[in-house]
Structures are given as structure tokens and as C-alpha cells.
Amino acid sequence: MGHNAILSVGRGLCFIAFAAVAWGVGGFVAAVLYDHSGLGPVAVTFWRYLGGLLLLVALRPLGRRDGDTPRGWGRLVLNGLGMALYQTTYYVAIDLAGVAVATVVVLGSGPVLVALGARLFLGERLGRAGAAIMAVSLAGLVLLTGASGGGRSPLQGLAVALVSAAGYAAVTLLNRAATDDPYDSALGGFAVGSVALLPLALAEGLLPTRGGAGETIGLLAFLGAVPTALAYALFFAGLTVVRATTAAVVALVEPVAAVALGVVVLHEPLTGWSAAGAGLLLLSVLMLTFAEGRRVRQDRTAPAATGGRLVRDDRTAPATGAGQRVRRSRTTAVTANAPAATAAASPHHHRCEEDRGAGGADLDTGGGGDCAALASTTDVALTGSAPGPATTTVHVPGARTGPEV
To answer: According to the UniProt entry, which residue ranges have a biased composition of type Low complexity (predicted)?
Structure first.
């Protein structure tokens, strides 16, 4: 898989939506495996991770160059452990609290935890509109799955479901902040996850106890190829250009796909509440998609010659440049209109603001400082030779290319 430099936000959203649908199909296939093969959830997860690992290893020479090696081994290990934790505890929560409660808690609290983590660690602000859309999606999730329990130990199941949601959020945030190729993230995650799950799978029962061998192998091969290798690789690729919170909400189409399969294949009844919940979920995904597209179009209104973003001044600065507000982005170059030609001579009390997604934390250089104080991480030039608009250019070494939303 190629690097995210050529991946658009629209395509990234499609990747994440496809991955979520594949996960919904995977859950349906896994349920069939439980009934027909006698395999438990841990064993099924182990086999799907091992199958995904073998497939990605087999395909590795097709898209790799000589000398390409993964970076950030520690992050890859954490990614794999998080994937194993999320999947295993999710199935345990279903056993303890029932499908409805486990699904609502894991898939419902997951986006909330992702939003909090993205704000704290990535500087991604959700905003009022985003919070409203998330509320709509969570309401749809509750309606779709129902609020009734049915498990043998609801309180324990609730606690385990929260652990699963935390694992899912950690995986999402790790891959949003990652600089590795999404292929390497998926490959490393499957390798670590397989090793971590092997002892548990052996204790549960690694081999099927009933059913035909051909059917079991075929279903496991499908699980390893589509809902695992392909879906995770696409999800991680989408996270390179789509904000973490947006990705978590878009991934809520997973239960919609699972319910649709149940209705079409198993002829399960679809209640009016479930249909309304599915509609709300799909509506929230569409609203976020349009919001991301609008944000990208705004970013692309920057002058073509600069190759950067259009950055607005939040206030009018005096001729000395005092009080100027500059917005810094992780793109290669950011431009803004500076109010005076003499800004380069006396740039005091500037405020540089990192823009990630809908906004970032202010980096105040303090009294008497300017954006040049950030020379260790950025190169800032304030230029101007005549009265009138000048140009502020911020270069961020090693920044990602492509739109940042």
C-alpha cells in the first residue's frame, strides 16, 4: 500500500466506511463459525489475525521497495496489543452483558473516548456541530441495538465493555498520530495480536470440534482476508487523512451492516425503532462527510503558488506587527496576510497557533518573543517591503503532505 501523500480525504472516508461494513460482515461470519465449528471468540480472533498476517506478508513484495522498514516498533507493539484487547474483551462483554449492551457501550463510548483523546493528544477540536452529530449517532446506535440486557452478569459486562472501548480508542489514536505506512501498522498489529492471543486461544480450544473442515477453513480464510487484512489496512490508511473522531463516528456503520445482513440473510424482523436508529446513524455519517468535504474545500482556497493553506488573521495588527495572530499547520507551507510591511523589523507579541483539524492549541511565545522562537520546530519568515499586505510563511519540516482536516 502506498503512502498517504496521494490519499484524499474523500477517499479516506470511503476507506473507513468500507472497513466498518467489512467488520459488520465479519461479525456475522464469526457468529456462524461459533455455531458450526465450535470455535470460541478468542480462537476465531486468533485465526483471523493469523490469516491477515499471512496474507499481508504474502502481498508485501508487491508494494514495497528494497530497504523499506517499519518505524516506531514500540507503537506497533502497542497497536497490536490494543487490537487484541479490543476484540477479545468485546466478545467477553457480549457473553457477560448481552449483545445489545456490549454493542452500545463499546461502539457508543468508543467515539467519545476518541474525541477526548484527540483533543488532549492530537489537538483536534470537535466543535459544537461535531458534538451534535456525535449525539445523533449515539442516539441512533441505542435505537438500533435496543437498550435491553440479557447477559448473565451485566455489571461485569459493562466494565469489560469499557475496557474494550478504551482499546479501540487507543488503536484509533495511535494510528491517527502514526507516521508509519498503514500497511506496516496492520502487519505489525496482526503479528503482535496473534502472539498475544495464542495462549488464550490454546486454553479456549484452538481447533474446531464440529462441522465440516472445508466450511470452517473457507469462513476463516474470508475473515482473515476481508474483515481483517483489507479492512484494517484501509482503516489505518483512512486515519492518515481523516480526523480521529470523524473516523470513529463513520465506523458506526458497522452495526448497520450487521443488522442489514441479519434481515436479508437470516430474515430477522426489523422493528421501527431499529430502522429509525439505522437512519440516524447513516444521517450522522453523511453530515460528517459533508463537513469534512467543506473543511477541505476551505483549506484549498489558499493561493496556488504557495502550496499551503489560507490562514485568516483574527485581528488587525498595528504597523509594528504587535498582536498579530498566525495559524500554523502541519502542511508543508502556510500563508497568511500580515497587516504591515514593517512586521519583519519589529515582530513582537506574536501568537502562533497550531492547526490540526478544526483547530489546535495556542502556542504563546511570550512577551517580546515572536514566531521565530519556534525555530527548533519551524522556520518562520515575516516579510514585507511596502505598506499594505505582507505575507507570513511557516515551513514545518517533516510535515505530512495532503489536506489536514
So the answer is: 331-345
